[in-house]
Design brief:
Elements (H helix, E strand, L loop, with lengths): L1 H25 L17 H9 L1 H33 L23 H22 L7 H34 L4 H7 L9 H12 L2 H9 L8 H27 L21 H36 L10 H21 L4 H34 L13 H21 L8
Helix pairs in contact: 2-3, 2-12, 3-4, 3-10, 3-11, 3-12, 4-10, 4-11, 5-6, 5-9, 5-10, 7-13, 10-11, 12-13
Length: 418
Amino acid sequence: MDSMSLTAGSDNQQALENKSLEHEQSVNCDDADFEIRTECRFELPELCRMFLGRASGILYILCILFYLFLSQWMAGPIMGTGLATIVPINIGIFRQCSEDDFGSHIHPADGCWNTYALFVLMFAVIVVPIACLELKEQAVFQVTMAIFRFVLILAISIYSLVSVVKNDISSYTSTSTVESEDSIHYAKFNGNGLLAAVPVIVFAQMLVVAIPSLSQPVSNKRRLVLLYTVVFVMTTLVYSILGVTVAIYKRNDVLEVCTANWKPLTEPEHNAALRALAYFVVLFPSLDILSSYPITVTLMANIVENMYRDDPRQMPDRIARVVHRFVWAVVPIISSVFLTNLVDLDKYSGLIAFFVVFWFPALLQYRSKQVSMALFQHAATPYSSWYSNNVVVIIVFLFGMVATLVTFVGFFLPGSLS
C-alpha cells in the first residue's frame, strides 16, 4: 500500500511538473501586457486535482455542480412565481396567482399552474439561446443588465431617503406630540437576523467560482486584480447603502425580499410615474435572472468539459459547446416546471457554499504556493497581492469553518433562519 501511494504521489508530481512546464512554454509572463492565449483556462476543479489530489478535485466538482444546478433550478420558480403573482392575467385557463398558491406547496393548483408554466416557458425561450452564446457574445446584454441593476439600486435608495426626510419633516411639523414621537420612532438593532444574513453574504461571494471563465476573454491579465477588487468593493458599498436606506425607510415593516416592499406602490391610487417605478423595482429580480442564468450555464459547462480533457488548451468545437450548454440550460428549467418550491432544500444546500467559497480556495491557495516554491523557488504570480499572504489565507479558512458551524447550529434555533 505504501509503495502504491508513493508511486501515485510521484506520478501526480511528475504530471504537475509537466503541466507547469507546458504552461510556462505557452505563456510569456515577461510580456508587458501579460497576454495569455484565451484558450488556456484552468477551472477550479482542475486546480484542485493538480494541487490537492484527485479525490479533492472530485469532491469539489460534486459540491459545485450540485450547488450550481440547484441555483439554476431555483431560477425557474423565481421567474415563474414572481411574474405569476404580479402580472394581472385572467384569460381562459390562466389566472393571476397569489402568494398562498405557492407558500409551502410543491405544485400550485388550477389555473395558477398554467400561468406559472407560461412564464417559465417564456423565460426558457429568452434565456436558453443566450446561454448557448460565448461570454464575449453576451457582453452587450450583460453590460446592459448591469446598468439596470445600478439604476434600480439608485432609484430605491433615493426614493427611500426622500421618503424618510419627508416623513420626518411632517412629523416635526405635526401638531400632535404623540404622533410626532411615534412617527420618528426607529426600531432597535436586533442581532438575531445576523445568522440569517450569513448565507446571503456567502452567496454574494460565489463569484469566485466563475473567475476563470469570466477572466478568459480578458487579454490584459495584469488588470484582473484591480478589476475584481473594484467589483467587490463597489458591490459591497452599493448594496450596503441599499440595505441601510431601505431599513431606515421601512423600519419594522421591512420585508425579507427588498423589492417586495414596493408592491403596494403598484396600486391604482398612486400616480403613473410612481407606479411605473414600482413595477420596475418589483419585476426586476425576475428579469435579473435573465443575466445570471447564462453565466451559470457557461460555468457548469466549462467545469464539466474540464472533467474529460487533459490539456487546458484543448477546447471542444463550437457545436459541442453549444449542445453542452443547451442541455445544462434546459434540464433545470424543465425540472422547475414540475417542482416549484425548493426553499428547504436550498436552505440546507447553502452549507455547501462555505466549502466552495472558503474552504477549497484557501487550501488551494496555500498548497499552490508550496508547490510553486518547490518548483520555481518563488510563489509570486502576476495575480498576487496583499491578500495572497498566508495570514489572510488562514483567516479566510477559519472564517469558513466558523461560518459553517454557526449556520449549521442556526438551523436548530427557532426563528433564526426562518
